[in-house]
Amino acid sequence: MKIVKIINNNTVCAVDEKGKEQIVSGKGIGFGKKRGEAIDPAQIQKIYMITDSALRKRMVECLSEIPYEHIQLTSELVDYISSQISEILNESLMISLSDHISFAIERQKQGIAFANPLMDSIHDYFPEEFALGRYCVEEIRRKLDVALHEDEAGFIAMHIINARAPHQYGTDSGLDKAGECLRRNCRYFLSGQAGQDHGCL
User: Fold this and answer.
1) At 21, which helix (H) or strand (E)?
2) How confident is the model over 111-149, as pLDDT tens digits?
3) Strand pairing partners for 15?
4) Do residues 84 and 104 touch, judged by C-beta distance below 8 A?
5) How far apart are CA 137 and CA 132, in angstroms?
6) Bridge-partner residues for 22, per DSSP?
7) What torsion do the CA atoms of 187, 161, 82, 150 make, to the nearest 10 degrees?
8) Helices 177-190 and 151-163, interaxial angle, to 10°?
């Protein structure tokens, strides 16, 4: 695997032996390196296999802007979330969640907290995602010593809900019309369109 672009000291873009471009991270993996150099396999901590070129570009931007410890923890959380949900999650989850978690941590340090207007509904209609959100909040407290407000569990759950394909909430899931409307509102809320009339709530 050879380096094609150095994002920062801890992340590089590389191509494997088949010519496929990948994003590779590891402590100090890009430090003092140059384009074309081989990557030491011992330094590799995570390989991000993102097939969509637009998402891969966003991931590169994300990795270049967010503290490495936030990226590392989010990667662990996404791996755990994926292990708890049988369906394949949208590969954008790593991007959206790392961005959200990093900003949430910075807001907490500044004493700023946001209330989640969908908190009760998420708890009632999406208990699995909400439980995973609470797990993430606890892991952030345990590993980074940052105590986020419980509403953040709801925000994280919204990202998980948004990362699950719509068909995963079909009739077999028991999700009724109100729950489906909530799922749509989570998507609109995360896209910055909260407060608009989407014909649901």
Assistant:
1) strand 21-25
2) 998 899 889 989 998 999 999 999 999 999 999 999 999
3) 2, 21
4) no
5) 9
6) 14
7) 100
8) 100
DSSP state of 37: P
State how far the Cα of 4 lies from the Cα of 15, in Å rounded to an integer.
7
pTM to 2 decimal places: 0.79
Secondary structure (3-state) at 189? helix
User: Six-digit token pair at 14?
Assistant: 């590389």
Which two three-digit tokens encode residue 77? 């959380």
Alpha helices in the chain (DSSP H): 53-65, 68-84, 93-109, 119-125, 127-144, 151-163, 177-190
Going by the DSSP 8-state scheme, the letter that residue 184 receives in this structure is H
| 3-class DSSP string for 77-104 | HHHHHHHHCCCCCCCCHHHHHHHHHHHH
Maximum Cα interatomic distance, the chain, rounded to a whole number of Å: 55
User: Which residue shows structure tokens 């208990």?
Assistant: 127
At 117, give phi and psi (nearest 5°): -70, -15
Other Cβ atoms closer than 10 A to 36: 8
Return the DSSP state at 195: T
Using pLDDT thresholds of 50, 70 and 90, give the confidence band for residue 175: very low
